[in-house]
Amino acid sequence: MKDILQDIIANKRIEVDRQKQAVQLRTLLALGGERLERTTYSMRASLAASSSGIIAEFKRKSPSKGWLHPDAAIPDIIPAYQQAGASACSILTDPQFFGGSLGDLCQARKLAEIPLLRKDFIIDEYQVYQARVMGADAILLIAACLTPDQCLSLAELAHTLQLETLLEIHSESELGHLNPHIDMLGVNNRNLGTFHTDVENSFRLAEIMQEVSKEKDLAPLLVSESGISDTATVSRLREAGFRGFLIGETFMKTEEPGDTLSAFIGGLPC
Question: Cys-Cys crosslink for 164: which of 5, 107, 138, 151, Cβ 3.0 to 4.6 Å?
Fold first, then answer.
């Protein structure tokens, strides 16, 4: 079976190299100016304090489903997500496979007063600086894309830039990537090699995630990502120890994602 993740990472290396050639790091930081002085929002704290814990995602397409909402516009959706009660928003910034851009993140920052997660395949320090300059409050670090040492280095850099980190795993073996600079620990219920989705993956890993965190004397907030389509699943995940629930397709495949989110949160038990 074709490994989609390998294709994405190969393309990402080319994309980042081109970006670095077009705008050198010192230029990026100079252009960032006052943006680098902005006080970031804590995504972890927002999720911990929320009764819903919903991380509402903005994405136009995915490799597995194709276009979900091709004409989706940040100004139409991000304010609606915030008004509906999202605890945070996830912004896809990958152009080729997900139809996103750094411009989406920058625009969302101007419109939102809740934490923003830059969701991308981060493999280079340059992307962490980009995230800070463009308005992110947190970044996604995918264990399947990184060695444990790379994960540690990127997470350390994120913290120096006042960015929080969400480490994404898909299997127990990837828990070796967990380090003291990880604020949130997520389970991707979607296999990034095949893009098959199974929400039971979160339940299978919940106990070992908590055990390994305790063994390392760490307490990352647990997040379940992908494949969540009903409020009953959120309730079950919360009982299993999760406090964040990243949901994209369920909202983005509808005409009015903000209204769909509002109805979803309204259906959660108090």
Answer: 138
